[in-house]
Structures are given as C-alpha cells and as structure tokens.
Design goal:
Layout: H1 2-29, H2 35-43, H3 49-156, H4 160-177, H5 182-243, H6 264-280, H7 284-287, H8 291-302, H9 306-324, H10 335-358, H11 365-387, H12 393-412, H13 418-449, E1 455-457, H14 460-469, H15 475-479, E2 484-486, H16 491-510, H17 517-545, H18 551-566, H19 568-579, H20 593-621, H21 638-653, H22 659-681, H23 691-709, H24 726-737, H25 740-746, H26 759-776, H27 780-785, H28 788-810
Helix pairs in contact: 1-2, 1-3, 3-4, 4-5, 4-8, 5-6, 5-8, 5-10, 5-12, 8-9, 10-12, 11-13, 12-13, 13-16, 13-17, 16-17, 16-18, 17-19, 17-20, 18-20, 20-22, 21-23, 23-24, 26-28
Length: 811
C-alpha cells in the first residue's frame, strides 16, 4: 500500500514538472501580450502548483544568468581592445571632419552661379512645357469653337437641318475631347435649348405653311382642274370628230345658236389653244413652297420626335379638311360658288398627294384614303343638298360638268370617285326635272301663241322650211298648187323641234359620264318619255281644259296630236342616230308618245263633247215656251233653229277630224239635245202643259229629226242618228194621237209601237195636261161631245199609276 502511494506521488510530480517545463517554453517563445493565458493555467492547476512553478522559474533564471555570465567573460577582452582602438581613431576623425567641412564650403561657393543658371533653365523648360500643353489644348478646342461658330451661323441663316447635324457632331465628337473645360460644359448645356428653339421655329414655319396652303388650295385646285379639263376637252373633240354624223347638230340650241361640227382646222386650233394653256398652267410645286414641311420633318426625325410631328400634321390637316368641306350658304346660287368649293377640295388633296409621294411616311395611303372617304361623304351630302335648291337647268348642267372635271382630276391622283358618278345619276334626275319645268313653260308659251289654224304656205320655200322642221308627208297636199294649207297649226313643228332640243339638252348631261351608248340611249328615251307623258301631256290636258279653248281650237288640237303621234317614230330614229343603238336591242326603251297623244286626243274629244253639250245647254236656256198656249205658232222655235244652224256649221268643221270622232260628237250632241228637251217637259217646276204647247214642242222635235236625217256628219247608216230622238218622238206621238189604248194594250211587248215611252214619264206629262184641262177647259169639247171622255182620262191615269206602282214593286 505504501509503495503504491509512493508510486502515485512520484507520477504526479513528474507530470507537474513536465507541465511547468512546457509553460516556461511558451513564455520564452510567446509574445508578451499572450503570456496571460499561460500564467492563468499555472494558477488553475493542481494545489501547490504555483509554488512548484515559482521554484522551477527561479531555477530557470539562475540557469540563464550563469550562461550570460559565461558569455560576458568570453567576450570581455575583445570589448576592451575595441574601445582602445576607437579612442585612437577619434583624432583622425576630427581632422577628416575639418577637411570635409572646408571642401564643402568651397564647393558651395563655387556652385551658387551654377545653381542660379540651373533654376533659370528649369523655369524655361517649365514655360516651354506649359506653352506646348496650351497649344495642344487650344488645338483641341479650336474645332469645337469653329463648330459652335458654324452652328450659330447656320441658325442665323435658318439652316436648321444642318445646324442639328452640327450639334450632333459637337456632342458626339468634339465636346467629349475637351469636356473638362467650363466653356464646353456651357456649350453642352446650351445645345438642348438650341434644339428646342429649332423645334419651335420649325413648328412655326410649319404653321405658316399650313396657313399658306389653306389660302392657296383654290389656286392649286384650279390649276389641277384646268389641266384635267384640257385633256377632257381634247379627248371629247377627237371623239366628236370621229363620230360626227347627220344628227350631230341640232336645229336650235337652248341659247339660240347652232352647234357647229368640228372640222380638221377647228381641231388643230383647239390643240394649239390647249398647248398654249398648258404652258401657262402652274403645278402645285410652282404655287406652294413645300420646303417648310420637308425641313420640319427632317428636324423632328433627327430629334427623334417624328411621331409627334406626324400626329400634329395629320391632326391639323384633318381640321383643314373639315373647314374646306364646309360650303358657303349661297353656293348653289352661282356656278362660281361650286367652282371655288371644288377648287379648294382638289387643291387640298393635290397637296396631300404630293406630300404622300415626296415624304417618307409623313402621310400614308391609308390616311389619305381615310380623309378622302370622309370628304367624299361630306361632298356628296353637300352637293345633294345644294343641288336640290337649283331650278336652272343650265346651272345644273354646269354643276355636272364641274363634278365630272372634279372627279376626273382626283381620279388622276388615284382617288376612287365612283360614288361621285353615282351622285351624278341623282343629279341627272334633278336636271331632267328642271328641264321638264323649263320645257313646260316653253310648251305653254307655244300653245298660248298658237292661232290653232292650219299653216298657210304661200311658196315652195315656205313649204320646205316647214318640212325641214317637221316630218310631214302628204301626197295629196304636195300635189296641190300654192298657196295651200297644211292641216296642223304652227305649234306642231315648234313642239317637234323643242322635243328634239330637249333630247339634245338631256344628252348634254350624259356626256363624259363614262357610260355606254346603250345606257345613254336608255337615259335619253326615259327622259323623253317623261317629257311626253308628263310635261307635254300635262300641258295638253291643261290647254284642253282652259275655258277660252273653243270647239274649233279643240278640233285643231286633235289634228295636231294626230300629226305629233305620227312623228314619234321619227323621234325614235332621231335618238337612234344620236346614240347609234339599234331600236331592236333587247333592253331598248320605247317612246310612249303614241299613248300620250292618244290620251290627249281622247281628252280633247271628251272636251269637245262636253263643250258641245254646254253650247246646246246655252241654247236650251234661251227657250221661252208658252206652256199654256191654245195652239202652236205653226213654225219651229227660233232658239232651236239657231241651235240647229250652230250644230250644222260646227259639224262642217269636224270634217278634218277622224270619222268616228265626228260621228260620236254628232250622236252625243243629238242625244244630249233629246235628253235636254225631254227634261224640259219633265221639269218639276213646270206644273201645266197645254196641248198647243205640246204641238209647238212637236214642231221643234220635227226640226231636230230633219237635222238628224240630213246627215250632218257622213258615215251614219240609215236612220241611226234619228234614233237619238226616238224616245221623245214616241212620247209626243202618244199624246198627239192620244193612242192610249194601244199603249196600254201593247205595254211590255217587244213589238209595241210606244216601246220607248216610260209609264212614269207618260203619267207625269198627263198629270200636267190634266191640271191644265181642269183650269182652262181644254177638254171641254170632249165633255160636250162625250162626257165619258173625262172618265177615260181618269181611267188611263189610274192604269198608268198601277203600271208605275208595279214597276216600283218589281224593282
């Protein structure tokens, strides 16, 4: 046990010694600042470790002291020898020090001048270097200054595009080389302001340009339309020269002057005039300076703000387009108003077309098409409105020519104009309406000035003059000697001529519409049909209805319409020769002149019947019968003889009428006369009629029958005309013969002698005679001779009443 404890103690002592040795080595080899942790480990170790460490430390110090002492002892003699030698050298060192000091003094005195010269050389070298540096810097700055001076000069001379290029060079090339200098910084700061100034100036120039083209648009448009008109005139002249024919010139034009066919010399003169005019015509480039647009476009392109410029330009042009499209309120009054309107629009789009082709994308085809579509809709609306106010065909025709030139001009610049030609068809209808109104006045004037008498022809020249104006051919009249009369009145050739003039006037509108001959032929025929069926027909109807037109005039009107109807086929040929379209073509419209003149003739015939009956009524009103007269005068009444004489003379005039017309008029007159006479007997205001009045009335009817049997109008078969008085004749015979037994016995039989006598009529007349018999004793002789006679009359009255009552019940 003791041995183990001893061993353990020895072992711990050995470990402690080893640890202390390690700590000492660390203290000797470690930096002083790091000794703290090492020493702390001594105190933190086992008990009594500090004491042992201190003992170990003291042992180590003693060991080092012995080594130092040994080393000092070893080197001490050498140290003493060195000190001795150093003392010996000190005297030599002091002597050498004096010599060096003297030499330095003498050297300093000798180098003062050299030093002065050297300093001067250094100053010169420094100045030279500074001058070289300055020259070098100035050489770098001079181009900048020169470019800036050039920039100022370009701005003063308004060469803004070149000024922007100069700015670009200054910014990218010159200023960066000398950017450290203040004046360059000032220049660099000033360049953006100059750019803004250039933008403002160029924009101001653009505004001036826009204002300028707004003022000059009409001149530009006028020049463009003048060129288009020259080409159209030349082409039309060539076409007319090639297609000149026998119907190429009207006999009478609207202005009273004949149209002269173009010959070769006239065509050459027209070409020369066109060449002279072309020399005087100015283009858009001649009238408008486009440089502000180009300059502003380049400037904004360089500045990277092209889109802003494009948007501004397009916006302003749209505004100007709307202003241009606004017409003046009085534009429709004169052709000059329309011309100014078209000139402004053409000028606007000519400028836009030039900008489109002269610039790269400032305006696009889509933009111009959008503008044109907007403008076209507005133009059509304006023309449709203002043309509706126009009632002068010459102004409408001039408007049409302006529209055609306007359309041709813009079509030459690539703008679609089909809608304008469609509008012309609407205006054509209005033009035809104005023509119809004008020709209505012409026809009315012709009818008012007509004397409604056959045209007298004294010489062959007069006859040829009439035939040249109207296609009249009659072999019998041609065989007659001069002087002679043509059946129609002077209005017929005038009407025929005016119809041809209307066709020419209508044709004028169809020119230059780019339509085929078939379409033009259809237009002419339709407008001519309107003239015949509406205008001329209306004028004839109004003429026929006028109060001052008598039977003679109506007869002449019928004759005139007959000849005009026969001339319609010549109008067909006339249109065919103008348009060169065969009348056998499938879609060719036929003229309705036949129906027009037939209707007018029928109206005139009806008016003849009406006026003839009115005249008969006027004579009937002159009748002054003494209805209570005892016996007749033995002769017909005066008013009736006058009426018959009037009818006889009137029917003599009817010899020129077609046979059926004269016969119908005569039959109508006789029937109306018979009806009027019967109504006179049946008048409700007439209360009494004597037998003497019946006898007088019978004498008048006999005269009417004699007139009917005299065949006042040829063509009646047998006693056809006398049948007009058959009702009156049977009634008078019944009362004159007093054959009541036969009448009552045969009533209702087809073979009755008094078949046309109505019981109501017979009863009414018998009632009037019965009342007269009671008051005036007309039947007194019967009562004296046979009192049963009165009873017979009463019996007849009763039987007639029963017949009338039976008829009413049956009906």
């Amino acid at each position: 046990m003791l041995t183990y404890t001893t061993i353990m103690a020895d072992s711990e002592t050995l470990e402690c010694v080893t640890e202390h040795e390690r700590i000492l080595q660390e203290i000797e080899s470690t930096d002083t600042a790091c000794v703290g942790p090492t020493l702390r480990s001594v105190y933190d170790d086992q008990p009594y470790a500090h004491k042992r460490f201190m003992e170990k430390l003291d042992a180590r110090i003693r060991n080092h002291d012995r080594e130092i002492e040994k080393m000092c002892n070893f080197h001490h003699q050498g140290f003493v020898d060195a000190i001795t030698e150093l003392l010996k050298v000190r005297a030599d060192a002091e002597k050498l020090m004096g010599q060096v000091t003297d030499t330095n003094r003498r050297l300093q005195e000798a180098g003062k001048e050299v030093t002065a010269r050297t300093e001067e050389v250094v100053c010169c070298r420094l100045q030279q270097r500074n001058m070289a540096t300055t020259v070098e810097r100035l050489q770098l700055c001079l181009p900048v200054l020169e470019m800036y001076s050039k920039l100022k000069e370009q701005l003063q001379t308004k060469r803004y595009y070149a000024a922007l290029k100069t700015m670009e060079q200054l910014e990218n090339v010159y200023i960066p080389r000398v950017g450290q200098y203040r004046f360059c910084q000032i220049m660099a700061e000033n360049l953006p302001r100059l750019r803004d100034q250039i933008k403002e100036i160029s924009m101001s120039d653009l505004k001036d340009f826009l204002e300028s083209i707004r003022k000059h648009s009409d001149k530009v448009g006028e020049a463009a339309m003048k060129q288009a008109q020259q080409h159209r005139t030349f082409n039309s002249a060539v076409a007319r020269q090639a297609s000149a024919g026998p119907y190429s010139r009207p006999l009478f034009t609207l202005n009273g002057r004949g149209r002269e066919a173009l010959n070769g010399q006239a065509l050459d003169d027209m070409v020369e005039e066109e060449e002279e005019d072309e020399e005087e015509v100015l283009t858009a480039q001649d009238l408008v300076d486009f440089s502000p647009v180009y300059r502003c476009l380049h400037i904004y392109t360089i500045l990277g703000d092209r889109e802003t410029f494009e948007n501004y330009y397009r916006k302003q042009r749209k505004k100007q387009a709307r202003l241009v499209l606004q017409p003046q309120a009085s534009m429709h009054e004169t052709v000059e108003g329309y011309r100014r309107y078209f000139n402004q629009i053409v000028g606007f789009f000519v400028v836009e077309d030039h900008i489109l082709h002269a610039t790269q994308g400032l305006v696009t085809r889509a933009f111009t098409e959008e503008l044109w579509n907007m403008a076209l809709s507005k133009i059509i609306a304006v023309l449709r409105t203002h043309s509706s106010y126009c009632d002068d065909p010459d102004l409408v025709l001039e408007l049409k020519n302006l529209i055609v030139i306007f359309a041709d001009t813009l079509q030459g610049y690539g703008f679609p104009v089909n809608r304008l030609f469609d509008l012309l068809f609407e205006i054509r209808d209005q033009y035809n309406e104005t023509l119809l109104k004008k020709w209505s006045l012409v026809f009315r004037e012709i009818f008012e000035l007509d004397n409604y008498s056959p045209i007298p022809v004294e010489t062959e020249e007069e006859y040829k003059l009439v035939v040249s104006r109207f296609p009249f051919h009659d072999a019998e009249i041609e065989k007659q000697d001069f002087p002679k009369k043509l059946p129609m009145s002077q209005s017929v050739p005038q009407i025929y001529t005016q119809v041809k003039e209307f066709i020419y006037a209508s044709l004028k509108f169809s020119e230059s519409l780019h339509r085929s001959s078939t379409e033009i032929d259809d237009m002419l025929r339709k407008s001519t049909n309107l003239l015949l069926t509406r205008t001329l027909s209306g004028c004839l109807q109004n003429l026929i209805k006028k109060p001052h037109i008598g039977l003679t005039e109506l007869v002449q009107i019928i004759i005139n319409t007959t000849h005009l109807e026969q001339a319609c086929r010549y109008l067909e040929d006339f249109i065919t020769n103008i348009t060169t379209v065969s009348p056998e073509a499938v879609h060719t419209t036929r003229l309705y002149g036949l129906s027009t003149f037939k209707d007018a003739r029928h109206a005139a015939e009806g008016e003849i019947y009406t006026k003839l009956n009115q005249k008969i009524d006027e004579f009937i009103q002159l009748a002054d019968y003494e209805w209570c007269m005892a016996e007749s005068d033995g002769r017909a009444s005066g008013y009736l003889m006058d009426l018959i004489n009037f009818l006889r003379s009137t029917f003599q005039v009817f010899t020129h009428l077609p046979g059926k017309v004269a016969q119908t008029a005569c039959m109508s007159a006789c029937k109306h006369l018979s009806t009027s006479l019967l109504q006179m007997l049946m008048d409700s205001e007439l209360k009494q009629i004597s037998m003497g009045a019946v006898q007088q009335f019978n004498l008048d009817v006999i005269q009417c029958e004699l007139f009917a049997s005299s065949e006042p109008v040829p063509g009646f078969q047998g006693d056809t005309l006398q049948l007009a008085f058959i009702d009156l004749r049977q009634l008078l015979d019944l009362f004159m013969v007093w054959d009541w037994s036969t009448y009552l016995a045969d009533y209702g039989q087809p073979t009755s002698k008094y078949l046309r006598v109505n019981p109501t009529t017979a009863l009414a007349l018998l009632e009037k005679m019965k009342d007269t018999s009671k008051k005036n004793n007309i039947f007194s002789q019967f009562r004296k001779n046979d009192r049963d006679k009165q009873k017979l009359i009463e019996t007849v009255v009763k039987q007639l009443r029963s017949l009338v009552n039976g008829m009413s019940l049956h009906s």
